[in-house]
């Protein structure tokens, strides 16, 4: 198969979808790998390293998109890339379609096979989301700490406190991968940390993991309100796989926070959990202030630490990419449940139920569409 790796074009997105060793891995299956010129530079990989690994360096994004049978990316395509969509093109990347109505429309109208990293599922876990959630969870606390500093618009507190002065309060809503990694760093800094989750079993696990340094609280509106209004830093880390994130923190709760407090809505890629987060921010312009509270809502946080993130991401994506390239999309989807769960668009339909529900599309199971295919459709 011909596999294309375009350079990422989202604001400050310095990750790349393949490392030179990933190229060698795909070449071992007999595949051709086209890498757009300078695609790896932001992550510290030169064109020469890709060439040594067996890739062809291609000057233009258009040529990569138009020649490849499968495009592997990091972030969802932006509007300027929709022109390359075509029937049967395999697109393997983060898609977050519940929050991307126009992209969903462009993918379905053009018959793209969209396989989303974030819904690939193994034993109820999301292995292609996990490493980036680990990165974002750890970053969320260091970013929050930075924006609590007065010159960055915050109230001017040090989360760790000092002898004789109280520590800061960190509230984390959602105790999955992002939440647990945020808790680890916040506890490491010495902050008072409260974490809320809907799932009591998960709270039990975290209680066992972190002991007395973490307060675990069941998630309901009253507990969320109490934890939010007492926090210096609130981190949004909830996920309902594939679906738009629920707005758990209301505008009224935010109004009750002390001025100069900070919100980091990591879940913004699925629409965010704060009513007051009304737009995605960028690494260039990461915050805005509403009701006196600093809001941070960058949807590609790991893009700021690309060397770590690219290696962590490609560690987990490459085996799936190789299987799709070896077998072709249809056979890979039929033989691997994890890949089947990743398929969000196929043959003009939305094939992931929560995305279809949130966007108001009819949901079609991908297997049904495959069964209906004429031999030449894909
Ligand atoms: N902004 C960025 O750059 C990045 C964003 N993310 C996003 O962060 C979010 C969280 O991801 P993960 O931690 O990997 O998900 P996860 O599935 O590991 O954890 C989500 C947690 O939310 C909990 N939850 C669900 N409903 C809840 C509620 N009403 N109240 C409290 N907790 C609730 C679940 O029980 C689960 O423990 C996702 O939207 C993910 O895409 C991940 C990486 C980077
Ligand atoms: C999860 C995701 O969307 C990211 O790492 O950018």
Structural account:
α1 runs parallel beside α2 (47-53) and α10 (306-327) crosses α11 (329-335). The two termini are 14 Å apart. 52% of the residues are buried. This protein has 378 residues and is α/β, with parallel strands linked by helices. α2 links the parallel β2 and β3. The strands form two sheets. Strands 3-2-1-4-5-6-14-15 form an eight-stranded mixed sheet, with helices on both faces. A seven-stranded mixed sheet has the order 9-8-7-10-11-13-12, with helices on both faces. The chain is globular. The chain contains 14 helices and 15 strands. The longest helix is centred in the C-terminal third of the chain and has 22 residues, at 306-327. It folds into two domains: 2-111 and 306-372, Rossmann fold (3-Layer(aba) Sandwich); 130-304, NAD(P)-binding Rossmann-like Domain (Rossmann fold, 3-Layer(aba) Sandwich), CATH 3.40.50. It binds 1,4-dihydronicotinamide adenine dinucleotide (NAI) and pyruvic acid. 1,4-dihydronicotinamide adenine dinucleotide (NAI) binds next to α5, α6 and β8. Substrate binds at residues 15, 75. Residues 148-297 form the Alanine dehydrogenase/pyridine nucleotide transhydrogenase NAD(H)-binding domain. It is an enzyme of class 1 (oxidoreductase).
């Amino acid at each position: 198969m011909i596999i294309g790796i375009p350079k990422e074009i989202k604001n400050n997105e310095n990750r790349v979808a393949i490392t030179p060793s990933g190229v060698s891995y795909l070449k071992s299956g007999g595949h051709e790998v086209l890498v757009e010129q300078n695609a790896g530079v932001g992550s510290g990989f030169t064109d020469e390293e890709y060439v040594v690994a067996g890739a062809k360096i291609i000057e233009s994004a258009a040529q990569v998109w138009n020649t490849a049978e499968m495009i592997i990316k990091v972030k969802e395509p932006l509007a300027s890339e929709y022109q390359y969509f075509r029937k049967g093109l395999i697109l393997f990347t983060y898609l977050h379609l519940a929050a991307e109505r126009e992209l969903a429309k462009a993918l379905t109208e053009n018959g793209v096979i969209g396989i989303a990293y974030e819904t690939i599922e193994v034993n109820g876990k999301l292995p292609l989301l996990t490493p980036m959630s680990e990165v974002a969870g750890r970053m969320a606390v260091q970013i929050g700490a930075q924006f609590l500093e007065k010159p960055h618009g915050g109230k001017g507190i040090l989360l760790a406190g000092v002898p004789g002065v109280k520590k800061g309060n960190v509230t984390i809503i959602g105790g999955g991968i992002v939440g647990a990694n945020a808790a680890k760093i916040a506890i490491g800094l010495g902050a008072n940390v409260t974490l809320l989750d809907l799932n009591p079993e998960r709270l039990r696990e975290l209680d066992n993991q972190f002991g007395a340094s973490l307060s675990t609280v069941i998630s309901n509106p009253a507990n969320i309100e109490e934890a939010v209004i007492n926090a210096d830093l609130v981190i949004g880390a909830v996920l309902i796989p594939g679906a738009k994130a629920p707005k758990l923190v209301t505008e009224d709760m935010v109004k009750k926070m002390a001025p100069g407090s900070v919100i980091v809505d990591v879940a913004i890629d699925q629409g965010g959990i704060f009513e007051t987060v009304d737009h995605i921010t960028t690494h260039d312009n990461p915050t805005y202030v509403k009701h006196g509270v600093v809001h941070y809502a960058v949807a590609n946080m790991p893009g700021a630490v690309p060397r770590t993130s690219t290696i962590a991401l490609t560690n987990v994506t490459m085996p799936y990419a190789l299987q799709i390239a070896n077998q072709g999309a249809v056979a890979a989807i039929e033989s691997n449940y994890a890949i089947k769960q990743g398929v969000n668009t196929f043959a003009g339909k939305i094939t992931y139920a929560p995305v279809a529900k949130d966007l108001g599309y009819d949901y079609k199971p991908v297997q049904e569409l495959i069964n209906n295919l004429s031999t030449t459709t894909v």
